[in-house]
Specification:
It comes from Rhodanobacter aciditrophus. Its main location: cytoplasm. It is found in: Cytoplasm. Pfam families: ZapA. The protein is of the alpha+beta class. Helices cover 70% and strands 12% of the residues. The protein has helices at 24-44, 50-96, and strands spanning 5-10, 13-18. A two-stranded antiparallel ribbon has the order 1-2.
Length: 97
């Protein structure tokens, strides 16, 4: 099965990227987000050079992804604990009644 090619623009350069069918909009959204991150880094004047901008942007995005995963795992754990407490409380309540 052939994958569609999607044209994306990153810092004024166009790239044709193969993409699984049905995921074109997600790829465009990801490319736009990356482009915005890289533009902000370039505009800050603190990072010089396209390669360094790309690496710093990738590190920032990786950091955000990992932080989100940790946050989700913590929330899942808290939800399991609350569910367990609720089940326990409901079990005790039904025994009393």
């Amino acid at each position: 099965m052939e994958k569609p090619t999607v044209a994306v623009d990153i810092l004024g350069k166009s790239f044709n990227i193969n993409c699984p069918k049905g995921h074109e909009a997600e790829l465009k959204e990801a490319a736009e987000y990356l482009n915005n991150q890289m533009r902000e880094l370039r505009a800050s004047g603190k990072v010089i050079g396209l390669e360094k901008i790309a690496i710093i942007a990738a590190l920032n995005l990786s950091h955000d992804l990992l932080a989100s995963r940790r946050y989700a795992r913590n929330n899942e754990q808290q939800l399991r604990e609350l569910t367990s407490q609720l089940d326990s409380a409901l079990g005790q309540h039904s025994k009393v009644g």
